[in-house]
């Protein structure tokens, strides 16, 4: 039996409605705005990798959301969680090398700390309802 309510809800849900996507999308743009002001060497080394890691969090959520099969969706959400873990390393290096100020560092850390729970909730929801 087809669950029409579930299908109806999924037809109206957008990737931008998901907490994990919204947090990671905003954070990646904030990181871009910070890194773009760094000196060239810092941008080319730490900055590029920091941006790539942060960008891939929301990108993998969006790709997973667009996949049809549950296993495909969850695989990309796991990639997103891995990118979140990688992203935790970059502010540590950046503050130590005096590229981030204390406020920037704290903000990035707080936002990154929200993501594992939000991504895990997305994985759990996908597992249970799709």
Structure description:
With 130 residues, the protein is an all-alpha fold. It has a single domain (18-129), classed as de novo design (two linked rop proteins), CATH 1.20.1440.60. The protein has helices spanning 4-12, 19-35, 40-66, 70-96, 102-129. It is elongated. Residues 1-9 have low confidence and may be disordered.
Blueprint of the fold:
Blueprint: H1 4-12, H2 19-35, H3 40-66, H4 70-96, H5 102-129
Keywords:
elongated, disordered N terminus
Short description:
This protein has 130 residues and is mainly α. Helices cover 83% and strands 0% of the residues. It has a single domain, classed as 23S rRNA-intervening sequence (de novo design (two linked rop proteins)), CATH 1.20.1440.
> What percentage of amino acids are in beta strands?
under 5%
Tell me which CATH architecture applies here. Up-down Bundle
Instruction: Note the gap between the termini.
Output: 14 Å
Query: Which bin fits the share of residues in helices?
Result: over 70%
Stretches where pLDDT is under 50 for at least 5 consecutive residues are: 1-9
Domain unit count = 1
Indicate the CATH topology: de novo design (two linked rop proteins)
Q: List how many beta strands DSSP finds.
A: 0
H-E string: HHHHH
Q: What does the average pLDDT come to?
A: 91
Supply the CATH class.
Answer: Mainly Alpha
CATH superfamily, by name, is 23S rRNA-intervening sequence
Rg, alpha carbons: 16 Å
